[in-house]
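Consider this one:
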Amino acid sequence: MRMIDKSFINKYQKEGFYYGIPVFSNSEIRSIRSEIETLEKKFKNGISKNKLEQYFRVNGHIVIPLLANLSKSPKILDYIELLLGSNILVWSVELFIKEPGSSKIVSWHQDITYWGMGETNNEVTAWIALSNVNIESGCMRFIPGSHNKKILIHEDTFDEDNLLSRGQEIKGINEKEAIYAPLKPGEMSLHHGKCLHASGMNNSNDRRIGLAIRYVTPDVRNKENGHDFAMLVRGFDDKGGWFNFAGPRSLFNKKDLCFYNYVLKYQSKVLMAGANKNDGMYKADK
């Protein structure tokens, strides 16, 4: 193993996050952003009774080939493999977009609180900047070492300005301990699902666009703790606790949209368990 790999692994394991990893060139980022914004123009009136934002924010890799293909990028997977091993699945792909001057924020939280995966270490989120993501535009902040804590109590707010599915937040965070993690276009950060993190408003003159990819291993689930859906992107699944799927046939393919709704209904029961309402991104038809 190269010294840089050892340094990366040690820092991630100590702090629960790592940022500033270059994965895409400027020309690749321009192409990716252009494709996203073309989709926004083409589907400004929505798809299959849903707004495009629904598919950008929840399981886009099921129906949007661009998002599925980005999650399979070798440069990203090489880093994920250093942390998780050679058998890797994608559980979720999301686009987080904050418009210029937007009041949208992400409150302090731990990712895996409602995922139904317990307090596993066999997952990691890759967050790729598709625009300039600095302090002004609302980059992420992390609390170093907080991934060593248990899952803390989160309060549901369902605040319209909160990008999280339940507006969930942890009270009493000492923000003086937080580390800003700015990213240039094409750079990536990685963080543990229990690492405390948040992000602020976009006070810049450009859109703040980030791509979050949630990677897991077969070990996260086994036959005793139920199933969920994931896309196998490297190695093999030797546990049988995931329903593996192949990715989209084409953009918003009718069969994929049906499968999307099936997965949404299945996951909604877990992700919104205990919530006093569900009228957001994980609202599933009965």
